[in-house]
Amino acid sequence: MTATLTKPPVDVPAEPERPRRRRSTGSFLNWVATHAIGLALGLMFATPVVFVFLTAVMSDDQAFTSNLWPAEWHWENFVEVFDKAPLLRYLVNSLTYSLLATAGMLISSIPAAYALAKLQWRGRNLAFLLVIGAMMLPPQVVAVPLYDTWSSLGLTGTLWPLIVPYFLFDAFSIFLLRQFMLTIPQSYVDAARVDGCSEFQALVRIIVPMAKPGIAATALFCFLFTWNDYFGPLLYTGEVKDQWTLSLALATFKGMHIVQWNSSMAVTFLTMVPAVVLFVFAQKSFVKGITFTGVKG
């Protein structure tokens, strides 16, 4: 018989556990260092919004001082501005303008972008160059002839001269959607044609579902532009207050109420809220749409 000798277990000293607070502090500092540029940009863009909000809840006397923090919080300022101006009417006008213009842009731009991206036809490149040329044309150049045209039709004093053109042509939206549709492989459209789909069916069933991020980004661009538009409403509805939008009303609110900065900032903050909320909920689609736009030319 042979005896098997086994070595006694050697106790290995365990490493001392680092304090959790030190590790959490280190990871936090590492995260801050990694996102330093993003944090700086976020702080830079958030500071004006915070300043507008803090001024909006100040008293009328404190709004004229250099104090940045409200001594008393006057939440009633957001209610009183509705008594000083018909903001609900202006809100309805802004929503009508932005929503109808965005809907018209999608109806007119999606088929045009599909024709420029997926169809082969003579003059396609020339048409695309015309779209780019229309993007470079300043709107002030055609303001006078367009105003004369709408005036002869009896539509000045309303928002229709601003809404109807989006149902006909919008160069920037066509360009953006065309660039995104180029990233969708042509084989999907060819397969749909082989299966018997018409061009309209291929657009609706294949391209539109795959181009949702690009469509969302384009719609967000159009909505924000029309929501903040000042020149158009001023040109066509400047003398008809019932047709004013929030952007036009905001520009005249200060003069109407003799520089009440707390009220002016309250209206400004209320005007900013819908656009900020829309961007927060649509930011993923917006970022994805912008990321993939322009990959292929």
Automatic annotation (TrEMBL):
Disordered: region residues: 1-21
GO CC, any one term: plasma membrane
Domain ABC transmembrane type-1: 91-282
GO terms, biological process: transmembrane transport
UniProt entry tagged with the keyword Membrane: yes
Keyword Membrane: yes
Name of the protein in question: Multiple sugar transport system permease protein
Organism annotation: Lentzea jiangxiensis
